[in-house]
Design brief:
With 123 residues, this protein is of the alpha+beta class. The chain has helices at 3-10, 21-29, 44-54, 86-102; strands at residues 33-40, 65-73, 76-83, 112-117. A four-stranded antiparallel beta sheet has the order 2-3-1-4. Mean pLDDT is 83; it is low at 1-13.
Length: 123
């Protein structure tokens, strides 16, 4: 079997050799998901307290999180996170983040949230 011939036939499509429509749909469902959380009046001390509860190991990220950045911004504190999927974020939010925030410590109020499907993620 000449694989070069098959590659040439597939060259005009968006699917790669060996990929099926079903696998492409599965990958599309798992599109990376981004969040920008702004905590009005938030401080570094509040962030550190919150982080200790949900990111106890500063060397690794929670399962499913690809990127985490945070810092002071005009009027408060901003946290940016990129997740492997919306479902990954929702699992973390429901199973880890919200239960820990209900225990107290960290930010005084919920954030203003801006969520988006990640179009381009570069290392």
């Amino acid at each position: 079997m000449n694989l070069n011939h098959i590659k040439e036939e597939w060259a005009g499509t968006s699917l790669t050799l060996g990929e099926t429509v079903a696998t492409r749909r599965q990958e599309e469902k798992k599109m990376a998901y981004g969040l920008v959380h702004f905590y009005p009046g938030g401080t570094k001390e509040q962030y550190e307290a919150a982080l200790a509860g949900v990111h106890p190991d500063r060397k690794t990220l929670p399962k499913g999180q690809l990127y985490h950045a945070a810092g002071p911004s005009a009027g408060g504190w901003t946290v940016i996170a990129i997740w492997d999927s919306k479902a990954g974020w929702e699992r973390f939010r429901d199973d880890i983040l919200m239960p820990r925030f209900r225990q107290g410590g960290g930010f005084a109020a919920p954030p203003q949230e801006q969520a988006f499907e990640v179009y381009n993620l570069q290392p």
